[in-house]
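Re: that chain you flagged

S.,

Sorry for the slow reply, it's been a week of failed gels. I finally had a moment to sit down with the sequence you sent. For the record, here it is as I used it:
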Amino acid sequence: MRKSRIGITMQFVWVIILNFGYLGVDGALNHATPLLHSELRFLYALAASGIIYYILRTTKVRNDHINYSTITKIWGVLLIIAFLVLFFVKQHVMLNVYEIFKSYTIVADTLMALSIGFFEDF
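Prediction finished late last night. Pasting the structure tokens below so you have them in one place:
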């Protein structure tokens, strides 16, 4: 693992600061238009991701790969297929996808999903 720029205590402090900042941006823009809200939230998530990347010096969690046995790979594929089938059958995924694409706020929805993904992954 590479050495980060600051200690673990300061990393924890930065995580708290960035999370409260994210909640603050979200709360302050509650009455804004959906597009403005999602754009500013996306920019904040990108900035927070850049700060975390600068502090950690990497996006990797591990340096070495996890080696799976053949039976573990087979079970993993079978479980993923089973969960996907159940998900598509029970959650009416195609109807939800259709509803999103006919939405008037598709750009705002996409930016909101990207900002959540950036902030969640970092």
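What I noticed first: The helical segments are 8-28, 34-56, 70-91, 93-101, 106-121.

Talk soon,
D.
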